[in-house]
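Narrative summary of target 7.
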Amino acid sequence: MELFTASWFTPLPDTVKRVGICRYAPRGQKSGYRMFNRLAPGPWFNQVTPSRYMELYQEQVLAPLDVDAMLRDLETLAEGKDVALLCFEKPRFVIGEPGHKNNWCHRRVVSARLDELGIRCPEYGVAEDEIGLRAEQWVRDELRRVRAGRAGSLV
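Modeled conformation, tokenized:
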């Protein structure tokens, strides 16, 4: 099973199982998707700064997560297919760039954490240079900062 991340709105082939990792699926989704709420953010998801979000997501979602159990459960949900972990935001991801509204997603946090564990989980159908490398680096830096217990930025 290969793992990917993607937006709910990214066209995916039938060989990829759509698995939501957000609080709910968008209206009008065709049947066949599954939800995996263990990776969904808490009710604070749209009420805090990105740095605080990272702290809460690490504390409430990533820290207690048994990655081996998660992978087994995703394998079961996959029904023999590859898996795309879905949320709402569409790439290109931007954070802290002058003149641009922040656009990033917790699915890239999940991807970064899996990458640290040697598990590849790229954004489906998006070239690396189109993903928003500055935002990707921010996610990785924030994960390290949060785990080290350092104070966050204002972003």
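Strands lie at 3-7, 16-20, 34-35, 82-87.
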